[in-house]
Specification:
The protein contains 16 helices and eleven strands. With 401 residues, the chain is of the alpha/beta class. The protein folds into three domains: 148 residues, NAD(P)-binding Rossmann-like Domain (Rossmann fold), CATH 3.40.50; 128 residues, no CATH class; 75 residues, Rna Polymerase Sigma Factor, Chain: A (Orthogonal Bundle). It has a seven-stranded parallel sheet with strand order 4-3-2-1-5-6-7, sandwiched between helices. Strands 9-8-10-11 form a four-stranded mixed sheet, covered by helices on one side. The structure holds NADPH dihydro-nicotinamide-adenine-dinucleotide phosphate and magnesium ion. Magnesium ion binds next to helix 7.
């Protein structure tokens, strides 16, 4: 059966790579739906090229922009709006596979809708697992959805799992796994002096040495909060306690992560730092399909290095470990406050070093009360509260500079 794919966030870095892989494998898959938030012209081009049947845009203004940008002789796709449109499309009967590649917690509701509709979900977005991993994994189990991690590290671990442990949403760690080894490049500031971090610019933070990604995840990689989010992501995907997830700094980004078994064997997945590999793995599973990558020259590479992360220079990583050990509310606050902090940093309203301060403050405020997060509405409410706290504090910091 040909897969019918919905790409949530098609105009982003992951979205564009997904379109590239689909175009290389037309006999196995086709695009059904695409979504964008601000790059509406690009969405119109993508929809014309991929012959999408449906597009989702945020509001009426974007709908008008889409109509005026449409200049293809083909029939215009059906246009749906907002979060409701995203949810409806993720659960659409015509869709077999959903690529969840919207950035931030905005992906949570549509990804959950895909899980509730029992789809094959290719999950690139990590923020939804951080905010509501328990609810999301339960929905995957309850509705028989098939969950494939696309984040390169988790995709690597998934590839290193025994077959019977794949395609499941486990409630306990696979019994013979001792540890997950989560590799981290260390980002652009791996060797930057702690004092100099105070003055780094958004352009420097977005200049990742190995990966080309969207701006938010690039800043997350620079603070290593991204690795913290990935620890929480691994916790939910593989039902693994924080103590059994070790972050290993590996500057070459060739070993994408490893699984260490009871007998001392460590299985690793290696590859070039290009997201088309995990995307092709998810789209092709259980087969291997072309991704557009050439051969990797290990001789040219010469060596692979591994070292410990520096929690002092990367306090965001420590905050994430602490949040995971502390409470789900702390994880919601960690993610929400970070989204606000990154936005302010990218707009040059706060400093790079303020990001960790803002997150710590928001978690502290949120943890003053206890929260029942067993329902989605409660998670969304708390997420909003944490955003407000972060914004207020960001404005105070901004005024102080
Ligand atoms: P980008 O910023 O490049 O793209 C984000 C996408 O989400 C765009 O299509 C954007 O639309 C859309 N979008 C943004 N805000 C909203 C919103 N509020 N509602 C609906 N849609 C929205 O991000 P990436 O592709 O880099 O990352 C996407 C996700 O994948 C993130 O969660 C990231 O952590 C994860 N990921 C990314 C990797 C990478 O290599 N890039 C690697 C591993 C994980 P528009 O562009 O039209 O505004
Ligand atoms: Mg990653």
């Amino acid at each position: 059966m040909i897969q019918s794919v919905c790409i949530l966030g098609s105009t982003g870095s992951i979205g564009q790579s997904t379109l590239d892989v689909i175009a290389r494998n037309p006999e196995k898959m086709q695009v059904y739906a695409l979504s964008a938030f601000s790059r509406i012209k690009l969405l119109a081009q993508q929809a014309a090229q991929s012959r999408a049947k449906v597009v989702v845009v945020p509001d009426e203004t974007a709908l008008k922009s889409f109509k005026s940008a449409w200049n293809s002789p083909q029939p215009m796709p059906e246009i749906r709006l907002g979060t409701e449109g995203l949810k409806q499309t993720a659960a659409d009967a015509a869709v077999t596979t959903v690529m969840a590649a919207i950035v931030g917690a905005a992906c949570l509701e549509p990804a959950l809708a895909a899980a509730q509709a029992g789809k094959r979900i290719l999950l690139a977005n990590k923020e939804s697992l951080v905010a509501a991993g328990g609810l999301f994994m339960q929905a995957v189990r309850d509705h028989g959805a098939q969950l494939m991690p696309i984040d390169s590290e988790h995709n690597a671990m998934y590839q290193c799992l025994p077959l019977e442990a794949q395609c499941s949403a486990p409630t306990a760690p696979y019994p013979t796994i001792q540890r997950l080894l989560l590799t981290a490049s260390g980002g652009p500031f791996r060797q930057t002096d702690a004092a100099a971090l105070h003055y780094v610019t958004p352009a420097q933070a977005c200049n990742h040495p190995n990966w080309s990604m969207g701006r938010k995840i690039s800043v997350d990689s620079a603070t290593m909060l991204n690795k913290g989010l990935e620890v929480i992501e691994a916790h939910w995907l593989f039902a693994m306690p924080a103590e059994k997830i070790q972050v290993v700094v590996h500057p070459q980004s060739i070993v994408h992560s490893m699984v260490e078994y009871l007998d001392g064997s460590i299985l690793a997945q290696l590859g070039q730092p290009d997201m088309r590999t995990p995307i092709a793995y998810g789209l092709g599973y259980p087969e291997r399909i072309p991704s557009g990558l050439g051969l990797m020259d290990l001789m040219q590479l010469g060596r692979l290095d591994f070292s410990e992360p520096d929690f002092h220079r990367f306090p965001c990583l420590k905050l994430a470990f602490d949040a995971l050990k502390s409470s789900q509310a702390a994880c919601v606050a960690l993610n929400a406050a970070n989204e606000i902090a990154v936005e302010y940093f990218l707009n040059e309203q706060i400093r790079y070093t303020d990001i960790a301060i803002l997150i710590a403050h928001s978690i502290e405020q949120i943890e003053k009360n206890t929260h029942d997060l067993s329902h989605l509405d409660a998670v969304l409410d708390l997420d909003e509260q944490a955003r407000q706290i972060a914004k207020q504090y960001a404005n105070t910091l901004r005024a102080a500079h």
